[in-house]
Amino acid sequence: MWEMIQRSLQRGVLAGREATPVPAGITPAPRAESGEIEVMGDALRVEVQRLFRGSLKLRHLDAGSCNGCESELQALLNPFYDLQRFGIDIVASPRHADGLLVTGPVTRHLEEAVLRTDAATPRPRLVIAVGDCACDGGFCRDSFAVHKGASALLDVAVRVPGCPPRPAEILRALLMAIGHESVRVAAGVSAPGMPTP
């Protein structure tokens, strides 16, 4: 054991160095340019810092979806999108949330759960309908077993259409939701060009 530690101390730290030299005539791959995700993310980070003191906590509420939208929400937490680097996180309890991400057409069997989750979420709060089903009931809107979207029970601030919506579209909707008038009034900040309440 001591020999392994001694060798590590003699070699020094290797982090940040190239493991092997790049062969002559081959150039390393360039870093990707800052794309749409980084631009929206930087805007989100600034607004979250200003309005929510650094962190926006959202609770995901599945109201009978097919899990297509959930997979896209899960993609927001992977290393490519990494929603948490922008100061936004998904929490396990509605009591810790600043808003709700609703997916699914809101089935009648889940109506009570949706209303209880909404009641447990502190006010003021955002409600974001993610996917066609949460926006207007989707492909099952005419069924007796579902409501016609989350807006039938909740005051939805922003709708993200798509079946399922791409993660970039969800990020764009989060940026729109943060700019929603009710959020700015609750935070005591006015929109550009508008008087402060």
Summary, kept brief:
The protein has 197 residues and is α/β, with parallel strands linked by helices. Helices cover 35% and strands 12% of the residues.
Distinct helical segment count:
7
* Share of helix, binned: 25-40%
Q: Please outline the major beta sheet.
A: 5 strands, parallel
Instruction: Catalogue the unreliable spans.
Output: 191-197
Radius of gyration equals 22 Å
Q: How many domains, in number, for the residues?
A: 1
- The name of the CATH topology is Rossmann fold
The SS-based structural class is alpha/beta
Distance between the termini: 66 Å
Mean pLDDT: 80
**CATH class label:** Alpha Beta
Number of strands: 5
Task: Categorize the overall geometry.
Answer: elongated
| CATH-defined architecture | 3-Layer(aba) Sandwich
Helices, strands, pairings?
Layout: H1 2-11, H2 36-52, E1 56-62, H3 68-75, E2 88-91, E3 99-103, H4 111-120, E4 126-130, H5 132-136, E5 158-160, H6 167-178, H7 181-187
Parallel strand pairs: 1-2, 1-3, 3-4, 4-5
Helix pairs in contact: 2-6
Notable characteristics:
elongated, five-stranded parallel β-sheet, 7 helices, alpha/beta, 197 residues, Rossmann fold
Describe the structure.
The chain has one domain (38-187): Rossmann fold. It has 7 helices and 5 strands, in the order ααβαββαβαβαα. It has helices at residues 2-11, 36-52, 68-75, 111-120, 132-136, 167-178, 181-187; strands at residues 56-62, 88-91, 99-103, 126-130, 158-160. It has a 5-stranded parallel sheet with strand order 2-1-3-4-5, with helices on both faces. Helix 4 links the parallel strand 3 and strand 4 (126-130). The longest helix has 17 residues, at 36-52. The protein is elongated, with a radius of gyration of 22 Å.
